[in-house]
Amino acid sequence: MIGSLDAVTAVLLIPAGAAVLLAMLPDYRSSARINEAAALLTFLAALSLFVERPPAGPYLLVDDLNNVFIVLTTFVGLTTSVFSSSYIGHELATGRLTPTFLRFYHAMYQALMFAMNLALVANNIGLMWVAIEMATLTTVMMVGIYRTHEALEAAWKYFILGSVGIALALFGTILVYMAARPVVGEGLDGMVWTVLVEHAAAFDPALLDVAFVFLLLGYGTKVGLAPLHAWLPDAHAEGPTPISAVLSGLLLNVALYALLRFKMLMAVNPAAVAPGPLMITLGLISLVFAAFMLFRRRDIKRMFAYSSIEHMGIITFAFGMGGPLANFAGLLHMSMHSLTKSAIFFAVGHVAQVKGTQRIADMGGLTVTHPLLGWGLVLGVVAIAGLPPLGIFMSEFLVVTSTFARSPWLAIVLVFGILVGLAALFLRLNTIAFGEPRGATGETKASYVPMFAHLALALIAGIYLPPAIVAWFQSVARMLG
Amino acid sequence: MHGLAFDVAHMLAGSLVLVSFLELYQDRLYALLNVYALHALVLALSVAWQAFVQDAPHLYVTAAIALGFKAIVIPIALHRIIVRLGIHREIEKVVGVGPAMVLGLGLVALSMVVMLRVTAESDPLSREDLAFALSVVLLGLLMMVTRRNAVSQVVGFMSLENGLVLAATGAKGMPLVVEISVAFSILIAFIVIGIFLFRIRERFDSVDLQTIDSFRGERS
């Protein structure tokens, strides 16, 4: 399987090769093009997985579940690379980045794509851990790339908290192996996920319980669940905006995916503790906490970072509830959130460039001074706040209704959190987008295609979800149990 | 009743916990680095013993990495960084030595209670190893929390990773992937940290994190 060049190897080899190539190319213009081209090829390879997928091996696996994640990751990776090439020109012009750093930046971008894809296709829980650790390290480097005081603080905080999280996850992984060893025997099999799931019913439940707690805390740190979220707002605010988009839209999902794999493992063992209530609790805490934190934000990127915590809370909650409907809603919400939140960050990146600051107080009347950018942001915020007819409305509606049917009290907390978040977002949006123009009105050569492409997809999904996608998500939701 | 193999493994893993406690109360950076070198040395011995007992030659590689890289190269490199940055003074602590030690004892007790209870079915060798490993991990975490200085936080993180290596080698027959990856991740982590330290130096002439922390991310 390693020898032949199938789509899975392509999804891994293209970004890896591109990273090496980009590390050697000095010219930033051609590296931006190569970055886009590599992302496009990876996306095409990921799409072909829908048609034909290689059989699962001891290291790699593609099934219905991670196929969705891979396509989403490579798609947002592609659009972000397009956004990135319009973004970096301005950063070079203002001297925030030098060509040397850009070379490093492009290489790291592809290295990050490689690490995320590897984490998604890994069938081996050890390999998955290595890939997530690698993704963390590459993003740490990129968060610190501006080398300002704040950027270094953010990167350091992210590095320390991320490492602690990843260390706890490794301990959990070792415990899973320990639980598996008496049943499946020593060696490689004890770490292969497909083998583990087959035999999980016979594992020692007490050991699995402890393992899951470590995994939840470890990967939960990377998902950004409160109270383990402290790194997330800083990392989003201080890094380059394309990285904020990829962090929010993709890396949080990848960590959540790891958690879902282990949740499926737990579900097979009847004697082990049910992972659902733990995830529901963490999800609701994140949602309500982040919704209130949204009110006092003065930095526009920090504000949307808290909004990401809020939505990861909703998604974790939905998967914690489980069952075909809630899982379906969780999957849909995750896809919609990825598309919408990265679109918002595309807009915010250019807004910050135009205004020369990230302070909300220095922004105003954006729809008047920069109509396309302003209305794009308005549309994005309307979408992320969960108003109809965009995609997030539908997924949030599904989460809420499926919860109401089963446990109304939880649904009340859920709705409360969503409404508080909505109020906070609109309060700030009003300052930024409408009213008297405030602050600088600089120009930027912005590319609006990625932003509006994402928003259009979210809109289409909100109005009409193709039956093929519905059927696909339903089958995945059944798989998640 | 378990014989020599168990006794030696038990002693080495126990020593690792003890050295973690030693790290916890060091108040000078040089001394801390020396104790960390000892920590890595004990880890190397422990891993080598596991390799011998389990008859798993690939674990000798892990032991060699622990010995060469963690016990020698990293302490020397950090030593030079400290000299170059001129920060070989006392470490600022958030919590005093007394409370930190008591907290540490509590954490060790906690990990014993948790791990010995849930692994009642497993064989005693890996069972005790796992309990000790969790103690080392938690003590490393405690050290990261109670120190303000960047270098000592890094040392805390590295002893945490040592605990993970102990756990991974204690789990009999665990695939090589993990051992190498752990060692490798330390390498990468170290490079990252090195870059960070130098960047921090370039900008504000200090690696004391309190100076960074005073700049809260939320700028008004």
- Tally of contiguous helical segments of chain A: 19
Spans of chain A of at least 5 consecutive residues whose pLDDT stays below 50 are none
Provide the structure class of chain A. Answer: mainly alpha
Shape, principal axes of CA atoms of chain B: globular
Mean pLDDT of chain A: 88
Radius of gyration of chain A using CA atoms only: 21 Å
Shape of chain A: globular
Measured as a percent range, the helix fraction of chain A is over 70%
Distance between the termini of chain A: 30 Å
What's the overall average pLDDT of chain B, rounded? 77
- What integer value in Å does the Rg of chain B equal? 18 Å
Range of helix content of chain B = over 70%
Largest interface: A-B, 54 and 52 residues
Give the class of chain B from helix and strand content and strand pairing. Answer: mainly alpha
**N-to-C order of helices and strands of chain A:** HHHHHHHHHHHHHHHHHHH
Count of strand segments of chain A = 0
β-strand percent of chain B reads under 5%
Structure, described:
The complex is a heterodimer of chains A (481) and B (220). Chain A is globular. Chain A is mostly helical and 481 residues long. Chain A has a domain of 208 residues. In chain A, helix 2 runs parallel beside helix 4 and helix 6 packs across helix 9. Helix content of chain A is 78%, strand content 0%. Chain A is built from 19 helices and no strands. By secondary structure, chain B is mostly helical. Chain B has one domain. Chain B is 80% helix and 0% strand. In chain B, helix 3 packs parallel to helix 7 and helix 4 packs antiparallel against helix 5. Chain B is globular. The chains are: A mainly alpha (481), B mainly alpha (220). The interface between A and B is large, with 54 and 52 residues.
